[in-house]
Write a structure and sequence with these properties.
The radius of gyration is 16 Å and the shape is elongated. Helices cover about 75% and strands about 0% of the residues. By secondary structure, the protein is mostly helical. The protein has five helices and no strands. Helix 1 runs antiparallel to helix 2 and helix 3 packs antiparallel against helix 4. The chain starts with 5 loop residues before the first helix and ends with a helix.
Length: about 100
C-alpha cells in the first residue's frame, strides 16, 4: 500500500491554503488585480483543490475494502460535508472539481 506521507499532504494543504489566501486578497482589493491575474488565481484555486481531492481518492483507493467501507461510513456521519459529497469524492464521479 502506498499512501501519501505527511510531508506531501502538508505541501498540498499549503498550496491550497495559499491559493485561497490570494483569492481573499483579490476579493478585498479587486482593483489591484488585472483580469489575467484574477483568472490565474481562480485557476490556482481549482487546481490545488483538485489535487487535494485526487490525493484523498488515491489514498482511499489503497485501503482494503472493509476499511474503505468503515471510513466512508464515518465520514458520512461526521457532519463535515454531506454523505453525497463524500461518496462522489471518494467513490463516485469525483464531484464538480474532478470534471474541471
Amino acid at each position: 500500500m502506498t499512501t501519501m506521507n505527511d510531508e506531501k499532504w502538508t505541501a498540498l494543504q499549503q498550496a491550497e491554503d495559499m491559493a485561497y489566501f490570494k483569492a481573499d486578497l483579490c476579493c478585498y482589493s479587486p482593483e489591484s488585480y488585472s483580469l489575467e491575474e484574477k483568472r490565474a488565481i481562480c485557476n490556482d484555486m481549482i487546481s490545488t483543490s483538485k489535487a487535494m481531492l485526487d490525493a484523498m481518492r488515491a489514498d482511499f483507493e489503497q485501503l482494503p475494502p472493509e476499511a474503505r467501507s468503515k471510513l466512508l461510513d464515518m465520514l458520512c456521519q461526521s457532519g463535515v460535508e454531506s454523505p453525497e459529497w463524500w461518496w462522489d469524492t471518494l467513490v463516485g464521479e469525483g464531484g464538480s472539481l474532478q470534471k474541471a
